[in-house]
Design goal:
The chain has 471 residues and is an all-alpha fold. The protein has helices at 2-6, 26-61, 65-68, 70-93, 96-119, 123-150, 157-182, 188-215, 223-233, 246-267, 269-275, 283-308, 313-331, 336-350, 353-361, 369-378, 382-397, 399-402, 404-422, 424-435, 446-470. Helix 4 packs across helix 6. The model is unreliable at 1-6 and 445-471 (pLDDT under 50). Keywords: Cell membrane, Membrane, Transmembrane, Transmembrane helix.
Length: 471
């Protein structure tokens, strides 16, 4: 019985073999996409809780804003270690399912380790636990983002990843609301005890999810599948060596700058609302305002996805990122209700940027897709670099002027939005995938022909040898 349960559940995929996963239809992709979308909620919840804990630790441990950003540095600093290191290696040598299980186990381990660190009020220990959690979530993102992008018709890649990422936004809304009730409305001792139970629940849930991923029928999309997609769309980028994929590295740079700006704003939103906003130092109210801002972020994901159904995703991306720059500028000098309103609008327009950079950056990579996706996700390390800088500026000049730092990084990320809309070599690749009918016409017979070819060659060889013997 046990052997029957585990039969056919190997975690290693053959990347040199093309399967029909490259042409998976909308209907066939629904179940695996729904399962992977749960992961987006998980790290949205973890990310939202982290921003709330950032503010709480400043009060409980009496640390500066710059030092409290160590949580973000530990969390996002782990991403490139996963996305270019261990998770990338597992993805290329084993496949998506193996990375999903690996990431969930790391997430559970970090959650369990965080409990004694919270009990002993060890900020350094908690940062170490967050680093392990970051490795787990970085592993999940390394697999989940490209999986969502390639699992289904290429034409709808941006739609799929933005819909899935919308559930990330749901997690970021729930976490601050929960934090406002379990952290700021209790004594420090009770609040820390509540956080312990949250992380214990997370550990149990993700371990159950890891078991589910082991048994779930998830299609393995190989490098050969992605090479086929690149050939079918005539993107023309797949045939170049990896180091010449300059559009990929531009996307990674944009991801670094954009993610750094987004995380910096979220990390110090509560501080901004408390000192420069309308809350008069009420941290609980500020946390609730932050939850509202995350709700605006989530709403933006759904609105942006709706527009992408009718307008090319690269255009929607350009408009949304431009609006981030336009509206964060007034927040640097105008506090109170006006400043908070500006940040609400910024979070609304941030919504589609991260997933769209992922989807656009992976266009045309073909056999380099798995390796390239790790570099784009590795750009998330911007979330470890920009918040400490923002915190240092805020400590010296106030939270309003501190927002100048993410403004500068938004402008740097804007270079990629301009490139995918106005540079011909970028536009050609983006539009060739948007216009293809791969995955809409059903699977071709090429897969069976590839499997049959070695047999036919062997038969021809036997016939030839037989003729030579007779002669």
């Amino acid at each position: 019985m046990a052997l029957t349960i585990f039969k056919g559940r190997g975690l290693k995929a053959d990347d040199s073999r093309r399967t029909q996963a490259a042409e998976i239809t909308l209907r066939e992709s629904i179940f695996p996409l729904a399962l992977v979308t749960i992961l987006f909620f998980l790290w949205g919840f973890s990310y939202g809780l982290l921003d709330t804990l950032n503010s709480h630790f400043q009060d409980v441990l009496g640390i500066t804003q710059a030092r409290s950003a160590g949580l973000q540095a530990a969390y996002f600093g782990a991403y490139p270690l996963a996305s270019i290191g261990h998770a990338a290696w597992i993805l290329r040598h084993y496949g998506y399912r193996a990375v999903f299980i690996w990431g969930l186990c790391l997430y559970a381990l970090g959650a369990i380790i965080s409990i004694p660190c919270i009990i002993n009020r060890s900020f350094g220990g908690f940062c170490a636990a967050i680093f392990i959690i970051g490795n787990g979530l970085g592993s999940l993102e390394t697999a989940a983002n490209p999986f969502i992008t390639v699992c289904g018709p290429p034409r709808y890649a941006e739609l799929r990843i933005n819909i899935s990422q919308a559930f990330n936004g749901v997690g970021t809304v729930i976490a601050p609301v929960l934090g406002s009730y379990v952290l700021f409305n209790f004594s420090d001792e009770t609040a820390l005890a509540n956080v312990q139970w949250i992380y214990l629940a997370i550990a149990v849930f993700v371990l159950i999810l890891a078991v589910l991923f082991y048994f779930a029928p998830i299609p393995e999309i190989t490098d050969a599948d992605m090479q086929y997609q690149a050939e079918e769309t005539a993107a023309g980028s797949d045939d170049k060596p990896f180091l010449q994929q300059y559009k990929l590295f531009h996307a990674s740079f944009a991801q670094f700058c954009y993610t750094g700006a987004q995380v910096a704003i979220a990390s110090f939103f509560i501080n901004y609302a408390s000192t420069f906003g309308p809350t008069n130092g009420n941290r609980s109210f500020a946390a609730q305002l932050f939850a509202g801002a995350q709700a605006a972020f989530t709403l933006g994901r759904f609105v942006g996805t709706f527009f992408m159904a009718y307008i090319k995703p690269r255009i929607v991306f350009l408009v949304f990122l431009t609006m981030c720059i336009v509206f964060i500028a007034p927040a640097t000098t105008h506090g109170g209700v006006t400043g908070i309103s500006m940040l609400y609008i910024v979070l609304f327009f941030e919504s589609v940027c991260f997933p769209t950079i992922v989807a656009l950056g992976m266009r045309g990579l073909g056999r380099h897709t798995k390796r390239g996706s790790g570099y784009i996700i590795g750009g998330v390390i911007g979330g470890a670099c920009v918040p400490p800088l923002t915190g240092a500026v805020s400590d010296m000049h106030g939270n309003g002027i501190g927002m100048v730092v993410p403004l500068c990084f938004f402008v740097a990320a804007w270079s990629y939005a301009l490139a995918v809309n106005f540079v011909p070599s970028y536009v050609k690749v983006m539009d060739s995938f948007h216009e293809t009918d791969v995955g809409l016409r059903g699977p071709s017979d090429d897969v069976e022909q590839v499997k049959a070819a070695p047999v036919e060659q062997e038969e021809n060889k036997v016939v030839t040898e037989s003729k030579e013997t007779k002669e």
